[in-house]
Amino acid sequence: MKLLCDEIVRRFPEIGSHFHGGDDEDSPYVLMHLVVSWLKELGPCDLTPELVQRVADFGKWCEDQPRGENARNDVLTIWVVGFLEELFDSDVTRPLIPHLVSKETLINNAEYLKTWVGPEDYQAALGEY
Questions:
Q1: Nearest CA to 25 among 68, 69, 71, 60?
Q2: Looking at the whole model, is its pTM more than 0.85?
Q3: With 0-12 CB in 10 A as exposed, 13-18 as middle and 19+ as buried, what is 68?
Q4: Measured in Å, how far apart are the chain's first and last C-alpha atoms?
Q5: For residues 113-118, average pLDDT
Q6: Could you tell me if 10 and 60 are in contact, meaning their C-beta atoms sit under 8 angstroms apart?
Q7: For the chain, what are the domain ranges?
Q8: Where are the alpha helices (DSSP H) in the chain?
Q9: What is residue 63's predicted lDDT score, i.e. its pLDDT?
Q10: Cβ proximity of 75 and 69 under 8 Å
């Protein structure tokens, strides 16, 4: 998963100094967590159009990667579980969700999302559309 780790650090250099991992299987999840934690520390005014576009471009890149064999090497799974789901519980990051998934996709995945992010956070995210 060196490709994913390199991509995260390239797109979000702000977190690079906080990451001291190696090439182990948890590194992509750790990096995703670092990016989301950094985003949650920002103020709403810090979500500039440029930053929102970087996040959206990163999501698109993750979606376009070939599927892996399991959750340790599937970029889409790592992105959904390690990044997207983590955006739901913060007033700062929740506004990013409409830039990452369509309302239709959010609705079509309602049961899954309510299970993993909670019904309240799901409803709050739906309100962002």
A1: 71
A2: yes
A3: middle
A4: 33
A5: 98
A6: no
A7: 2-16+24-126
A8: 2-11, 27-41, 49-64, 75-79, 85-87, 97-100, 103-108, 110-117, 119-126
A9: 96
A10: no
